[in-house]
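Support request, please re-run this one:
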Amino acid sequence: MGRRGYPPEFKRKVLDLIEPGRSVTDVARDLGISGQSIYTWQRDAGDALGQFRSPE
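Re-run finished. Output below.
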């Protein structure tokens, strides 16, 4: 059985929670997901926009 992952809509909503100033650690803890996953999603979102977004 393979790993399922998270749908793109969920990833976008998680990244939106970080924008208003909440830390990745807080959001990850509240949602029960890995902070590393969120950092990866931030990097991927930056790559998709043609820019580099470094983790905070």
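The chain has a mean pLDDT of 84. The chain is about 60% helix and 0% strand.
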